[in-house]
Amino acid sequence: MNRTQKEEQIALLNNIFSEAGVVIVTQNTGLKVSEITDLRKQMRVAGGSFKVAKNSLVKIALKGTEYEKMAEMFSGPTCIAFSDDVVSAPKVVASFSKSNEKLVIVGGAMGQKTLNVGEVRSLAELPSLDELRAKLLSIINTPATRVAGVLQASGGQLARVISAY
């Protein structure tokens, strides 16, 4: 990799760290290309990305971003998973690491907050934004349907009373 390619990589990584809602650091010793490709597809579907990056370039790119504190996590064969949604990247990585022992979660960060492995797994257990929206809509719709049912039942009973009279 020549100097201009390194500068492009640093700029790309810096842009990722500037815009991402959450960044997860993993170690991928022994993962096959097909397994990494499968993980990347899962991340893309969830709205995130998975990238293999050189540690020295990542450490340079971290400078001046809110993720600067996580520089010590980058040693050995590391990859980063990131997304704007703080739940989607941890959810996919945690799920994949359960089914494949070769992918190990090192930690992560959400803004200026550095996350350990347990905190990343806790984030993965949270419901996604779409799930929360669906629950909220069901809560909002439930009283309306109950009110409509009660009003309809009262009208029917009134009609029966008048009819019987």
Could you explain how this protein is built, in words?
With 165 residues, the chain is α+β, with helices and mostly antiparallel strands. It has 6 helices and 5 strands. It has a 5-stranded antiparallel sheet with strand order 2-3-1-4-5. A hairpin with a 2-residue loop joins strand 4 and strand 5 (113-115). Helix 1 crosses helix 3 and helix 2 packs antiparallel against helix 4. The chain is elongated and about 95 Å long.
Helix share, percent: 55-70%
- Total beta strands: 5
Helix count, DSSP H or I runs of 4 or more residues: 6
- What is the general shape? elongated
Helix/strand order: HEHEHEHEEHH
Q: What is the end-to-end distance? A: 93 Å
**How is the biggest beta sheet arranged?**
5 strands, antiparallel
**Helix/strand class:** alpha+beta
Jot down its keywords.
165 residues, 5-stranded antiparallel sheet, 58% helix
Write the layout of secondary structure elements.
Layout: H1 3-19, E1 22-27, H2 33-46, E2 48-52, H3 55-62, E3 78-83, H4 88-99, E4 104-110, E5 113-115, H5 117-125, H6 129-164
Antiparallel strand pairs: 1-3, 1-4, 2-3, 4-5
Short synopsis of the structure:
Helices cover 58% and strands 16% of the residues.
